[in-house]
Amino acid sequence: MANNNMVVVVTRQDSGILARFPTNPASSQPRSSGPRTLPPANQRLPNKSPALRARRRRPTTLSALALALAPAAAAAAAMVSAEAGIDRVLWTEAEVAARVGDVAAELEADLRALPEPAVVVGVATGAFLFLADLVRRVDAPLAVDFVRVESYGQGTESSGKPRITADLKVDVAGKHVVVVEDIVDTGNTLSCLIAHLEKKGASSISVCTFLDKPARRKVNVQLVGDGKFYSGFECPDCFVVGYGLDYAELYRNLPYVGVLKPEMYTKDSGN
Ligand SMILES: O=P(O)(O)OC[C@H]1O[C@H](OP(=O)(O)OP(=O)(O)O)[C@H](O)[C@@H]1O
Ligand code: HPA
C-alpha cells in the first residue's frame, strides 16, 4: 500500500540505523504535477555557473542520495541484501519449484493410498519453506505439525547432540508420519527425531527431505514400518544456505540455494 510518509531506513547490521531517507514527496523534493514555471530570465542562473552546476550535482532521488553518501551507504546497501553474501547458486528458484513439484506428486500418490490421513511433521526452523510449498501441492488428506530440533546453533558443524526444543501438538500414535526436513547431513537430527516419534507410537515413519548430503552421513537413518525416503536434490559436500537453510539464522529467506562467500563465515564456525 502506498504510504506518503514512508521513510527508507538504511541500516548496518553492526551499528543500527545509518541513515533515513524520507520518501514523502512533500517532505523531500517538491515534485509538482502542475505546469512548471521558470523564474524570470533576469533571475535565472547562467547555464554554466558554478551555482547551477552545484545544484545539478545535488541528489534528487533516493539512489542518488545513497551514492552521494558513498562509500558508507554503498557498503550498508550491500549488507542489507542477503544476496550479497552468496558466492554461487546451486539451484535456482525455478529449479527448486520444479523439483518440489516432482516430489509432491510422488508423495501425493503414496498418501492417497493410505487408509487414513498422514501427519506431516516439519522440522523447524529449516523446513518451513519446503513444507509450505510441498503440502500446497499435495492433494491428499493430511495433518500438519512442527517440532523444533536444534544441533547447529550459530555454526556450520553439528554438535552431534540434537535437542528437541519444541514438541508436537498432534497425537501421532498409530499414525503414518512424514517427517519433512530441509536437509539430511550427518543424520543426527533425523535419527533423534525418528526415535522420538517411534516412542510416541507412530505406526510408520517416512522422511521427505529437500536436500540430501550423503557424503557427510555419520548415522544411518532407519525408517519405520512402510516408511519411504523422498529427496529433492543430492547436495554436494559444502555448507549451503537459502530456501529455509541458514547460517547463524540468516539467509533462510533466499528463494534459491547457494554457497556463501568464505568471508561470510566467522572464524569459530568450523569453516
Ligand atoms: O543431519 P544433521 O547433521 O543433523 O543436519 C540436519 C539438520 O541441521 C539443520 O538444523 P539446525 O540444527 O541448524 O536447526 P534449524 O533447522 O533451526 O536451522 C537442518 O535444518 C536439519 O534439521
Ligand atoms: O549445509 C547446511 N546448511 C545449513 N544448515 C545445515 N544443517 C546441516 N547442514 C547444513
TrEMBL record:
Ranges for domain Phosphoribosyltransferase come to 99-247
* CDD domains, sorted: PRTases_typeI
**How is this protein annotated for GO cellular component?**
cytosol
Note down the stretches annotated as region Disordered: 19-56
Residue ranges spanning the membrane: these are: 62-82
Fetch the InterPro entries from UniProt: HGPRT, Hxn_phspho_trans, PRTase-like, PRTase_dom
Question: EC number(s) on record?
Answer: 2.4.2.8
Into which family does the record put it? Belongs to the purine/pyrimidine phosphoribosyltransferase family.
What is the name of the protein in this document?
A: Hypoxanthine phosphoribosyltransferase
